[in-house]
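Worked example 3. Consider a protein that binds iron/sulfur cluster.
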Amino acid sequence: MALREKKKRVGELYERYELLAKPYTSQAVCSKGCASCCIDVGSVGATTLEGLIILEYLQGWDPRAKQKMNLSLQQNRNEKLNSALARCAFLDQEQRCLIYPVRPFSCRRLYSVRRCDGQGPVIHRRALQIGKQMEQALQKLDPEGCSGHLSFVLDLMGNKEFLQAYLRGDWNSEEFREIIQPYGLVVHKDAPTGARS
Ligand code: SF4
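Given these inputs, the predicted complex is written out as structure tokens:
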């Protein structure tokens, strides 16, 4: 399947989740300005395909904003490598997501039927199941890719050799082991279904 078609399918999966999970997410108490899930959640998962969509979105930013974001992403990686929790690099000071239109699925599936107040979200079991299925479908759509914490995935994709090989569909996980291992990225072709972090 051509890359353009795959990216279109990613958007369709997001829409499908929204529709299927609506009976549950419609009971969410989440409100504008609350960003607990962008601050208190340990990992913001993404596939390489989702990472590619985000990188393309960032290309439209002016160079100074991109440079600032690169520093925030680096800080996020350092924090994540040193502790479990790290505020998402894409969350601005007004608690707004700077990549909202292209945020990954792991952000789209989060909601809570009770105010989190630092205790984590409460999500319907069925919504969790639907989310899991969608996550697996996203992995299937990206068989030559990998998944993991967003800033780690973006760092891997910032490696020109990796990006070129990924776009050709012929990269070898051994060649990039030094990046993949410390970041704990899951290589889809090497992993059992559903192993996305
Ligand atoms: S990408 Fe956006 S929605 Fe997702 S955790 Fe970061 S700031 Fe929040």
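Take a moment to read the result before moving on. The chain has a mean pLDDT of 92. The radius of gyration is 16 Å.
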